[in-house]
Design goal:
Shape: globular
Helix content: under 10%
CATH architecture: Sandwich
Number of helices: 1
Number of domains: 1
CATH class: Mainly Beta
Radius of gyration: 16 Å
Distance between the termini: 43 Å
Largest sheet: 6 strands, antiparallel
Strand content: over 45%
C-alpha cells in the first residue's frame, strides 16, 4: 500500500469562521504547537497560524482532518507550501512577452 503524502490534499481545505469566535477547519494534518494566544496548525496546503485571545482547541480529529477552535480570533496567516508552489504564473505581461 503506498504511503500518503501530507502535502497532497486528500480533501478540500476549508476554513469557516463564525463571528471571529469559532473556527472550523478541514484538511488538517496536525497541530504543531498551541497556547491560549496562538495555534500553529499543519494543513495539507501549508502551515496556518491562528492568533487571538483565549483560544481553545475544542475538537481535533486527525483521521478526518478536522479542527474546531473557539476563542477571539485576531488574525490568521498561512506560511509554507501551497498547491502552486514551484509554479511561476507571472502576471499578464510576463506571459504575453515570453
Amino acid at each position: 500500500m503506498p504511503e500518503k503524502d501530507a502535502r497532497v490534499p486528500q480533501t478540500d481545505h476549508v476554513l469557516t469562521m463564525h463571528n471571529r469566535e469559532r473556527i472550523e477547519l478541514t484538511g488538517v494534518v496536525g497541530v504543531e504547537s498551541f497556547d491560549d494566544q496562538e495555534i500553529a496548525v499543519v494543513t495539507d496546503l501549508g502551515q496556518l497560524i491562528l492568533r487571538g485571545e483565549d483560544l481553545h482547541i475544542q475538537q481535533l480529529d486527525l483521521e478526518r482532518g478536522t479542527l474546531l477552535v473557539e476563542g477571539l480570533l485576531e488574525g490568521l496567516q498561512y506560511t509554507g507550501a501551497t498547491r502552486t508552489q514551484g509554479k511561476t504564473r507571472g502576471g499578464f505581461f510576463d506571459r504575453l512577452f515570453r
